[in-house]
Amino acid sequence: MSASEHGRAANQELFQEVKIGGVPIPNRFVYSATWDGFADDDGFCTPKNVGMLVGRAHGGVGLLITGMASVTLDGRAVAWQLSASDDGFMPGLSNMAQAVHDAHGKVFLQLAHAGCYARTVLTGAVPSGPSENVSDLFPRCREMTLTEIDRIIAAFSQAAARGKRAGFDGVQLHAAHGYLLSQFLSPFFNQRTDQYGGSLENRARLLLEVVQAVRKEVGKDYPVLVKINSEDFVENGLTADESLKVCAMLEKAGVDAIEMSGGTPPGKYRSFRTGVAKSLESESYYRKAAARYKQRIGIPLLLVGGIRSLEAAGSIMRDGIADFISLCRPLVCEQDLIGRWKAGYTKPSLCISCNGCIRPAREGNGLQCVL
């Protein structure tokens, strides 16, 4: 088969149905979890939250992952963030899941706790994380007690159960980008000397206990995903080697798929980098780490970060780098991007990775492309 024939076959594979767990996904494109700033002041889902997902479902995306929903009220990272912290949020979340299904889409609920990046102005509480921080490297916080850790584990499992009851097709645990589960994994944040600190096995303990508790609540057949950093890109942070070891632990723990991202504040790179890549190989930020993953780990990999063209997505599929292509800002810019690619209009995304879409959301007007 010629190179061009390989490329066409890979592109065709991108639009074929595939399963995560037992859930059929119409194609291999994913709207990666994106805070859209459309929830109300208390975290209740609004019609605008729903519209963001439904528009992309109509635009051809195979799987949609919600913006991060806080599992506790004191774990909120940012204003106008979704919450799944008690049953009062269920009606709005149910409406979201049903609306996506009515648009013939599949949707997973992302669950998160901000840890030391929780905002006191929103929560009224002093932030807490794996360890006390009195430096200026990241927000001042206190060390979580073992009782508080148990509460967090229960909060994640209960929020996952709400997601299942609300009709979501699966849940994703956010263990990337410097939020709480990521903080415990990273020696940059985690200086504990008890069973949750020190060795990688200890630093991964909280995430694995959350997975175990979630699985107990939702059952063995309900899809559970984890989003993880390929590495932190910060001195003394989680390394690529350690990340792969954690992925192997997650596979053994029964996770159905992993989404690979990278970066954490205040590191060299964050998840939202600016500037468009100048080559096909550099268009995917974490391509090398993903290739190593596919050599070692058997469960499906969703790869996010910098992908802007059908050509790059096809090369990732052709080379066996990942099983799903996750996109964020390109789908903020063009909600029908996947549909037009499938229809044969294969120009790269119009997104130039300027991060201008974030500004309106921070001003209270919701995530939107400013081009």
TrEMBL record:
Residue intervals of the NADH:flavin oxidoreductase/NADH oxidase N-terminal domain: 13-344
Keywords: Flavoprotein, Oxidoreductase
CDD domains linked to this entry: OYE_like_FMN_family
PANTHER family associated with the record: BINDING OXIDOREDUCTASE, PUTATIVE (AFU_ORTHOLOGUE AFUA_2G08260)-RELATED
Protein name listed in UniProt: NADH:flavin oxidoreductase
Gene source species: Geomonas propionica
